[in-house]
Design goal:
This protein is mainly beta. The chain contains five helices and 18 strands. Strand 12 (242-244) and strand 13 (247-254) form a beta hairpin.
Length: 337
């Protein structure tokens, strides 16, 4: 995730990571026609759900890990995953624990980032047919600290799942012309809410096609943190795809209330990210329910060479505490036979 930038200036890191989020009291979905690229597909939720359930039954499991083995870091994990940035990992009580540390003192400070990408490209060559991944996120935890250290708008945590031609998050690719990826990403921002974004990487022509929030503009350096956030919120409210460097946000949902945020983050949930129709459609699931489905026709096909041998899965966490831990379970990667 080199050159990935968290879109909050309170976080002073050189890497770029998109600031993307999750489900909200007011959910903003993308709308448009079926044959246009980067628009949500029409059709009832029942139809989309039925298609997902039928398709999933026909998929073949290419990689599975229930993490149900002796506590500690095993040789099996080291051969299956490649570490990225500053993450450590082990199994504990049948769960996968991913830890990202930051130097003292405890409590919120500069963000730290880390994660793991699959050693192999488990998705079909050329992303043919349907390819998908599901994983259960159990909980996020951090050390105790003085609540007076909290800052308005601070990043509590961010988590992402990426299917791409490289190991890493959208924005961290070394070849921004050639590489391709889609990503499900959520951010929990104190006082602002819990955001979830379904995104893809940017193409040069996107800047002529889609509106842009304040991040990544030449004039962004002259804007305050509050002004940047306001422009981002305006882009969400408008609906439809929008550029938020380093990605194109295809669908965005936001949860504002404490009750809704607790319902999402206070309980384990199973997240899925799927590419279907030969990678012309992307959608994500929550507890096996289809949430947003978007036509991205032309994105992967504009450079099939990058996914000729398939794609990697990458899981990354970002947070601002000294000891940041994500507990996960039951990973499955499925593809068309």
């Amino acid at each position: 995730m080199d050159n990935v930038k968290i879109r909050i200036r309170l976080m002073n890191i050189e890497k770029k990571l998109m600031s993307i989020g999750f489900l909200a009291a007011t959910a903003v979905a993308v709308s448009g026609c079926h044959n246009s690229p980067d628009v949500s597909l029409k059709g009832s939720a029942v139809d989309k759900q039925t298609e997902h359930e039928i398709s999933k039954r026909d998929l073949v499991i290419q990689f599975r890990d229930d993490f149900n083995r002796d506590d500690g870091r095993s040789d099996h994990f080291d051969t299956s995953w490649t570490g990225l940035y500053d993450a450590e990992t082990w199994t504990e009580n049948g769960r996968w624990v991913m830890e990202v540390l930051r130097p003292p003192p405890p409590g919120p400070g500069n963000v730290s980032m880390g994660g793991f990408g699959t050693t192999k490209r488990y998705l079909n060559p050329g992303l043919a047919g349907t390819n998908g991944v599901e994983i259960t996120v159990e909980r996020f935890s951090h050390e105790e600290y003085d609540p007076e250290m909290d800052k308005p708008g601070q990043l509590v945590q961010a988590w992402s799942m990426t299917l791409g031609s490289w190991r890493g998050s959208v924005g961290g690719q070394t070849d921004k012309q050639r590489d391709r990826a889609v990503q499900l990403h959520f951010d929990f921002l104190r006082d602002d809410g819990l955001y979830v974004y379904l995104v893809r990487g940017l193409l040069p022509e996107d800047f002529d096609r889609y509106p842009q929030d304040g991040f990544g503009r030449n004039e962004s350096k002259a804007l305050s943190d509050q002004e940047l956030r306001a422009l981002h919120e305006e882009a969400i409210e408008r609906g439809g795809p929008y550029i938020t460097v380093p990605c194109l946000a295809l669908a965005t949902r936001v949860y504002r209330s404490t009750r809704e945020i607790q319902a999402m983050l206070g309980h384990s949930h199973r997240y899925g990210l799927y590419l279907t129709d030969d990678a012309n459609t992307v959608y994500w699931t929550l507890d096996d329910q289809v949430m947003d489905q978007v036509n991205i026709r032309g994105y992967f096909s504009s450079n099939r060479e990058s996914i000729r041998d398939g794609a990697f899965l990458t899981i990354i966490g970002v947070a601002s505490f000294q000891q940041n831990r994500w507990s996960m379970d039951d990973l499955e990667i499925r593809t068309s036979p």
